[in-house]
Input
Amino acid sequence: MRSEKTPFVGGPLDGQALDVLTGPTGNPPKWYEVPVPSPDGPPTVYAYERRPAGYSKRLGLQRGWKYVYVPGGREPWSPKWPWSKPAPESTRHADDERPSTGTGD
Output
């Protein structure tokens, strides 16, 4: 597989450039997690998010990637199914509800 040197910004890997494997599209993964073992408990996981490293002056093309440290860690991901949550209240219309008959029903 192909890899590319990718710089890291912030966190414990600040200033280092590591070889990161690229996927089938030639891009490194969106998140890079570094587990650090802890002698008195579970390992600490440092999360880095992939962001554009910069843009060229003339055409504005992207110039590679860099990983930026995210202190809060990575958000848990789950698939977003259309039936997994009810519709927000703001999308409902007032005329969708039944009109009141005035009899207390």
Observations:
- Residues 3-74 form one domain.
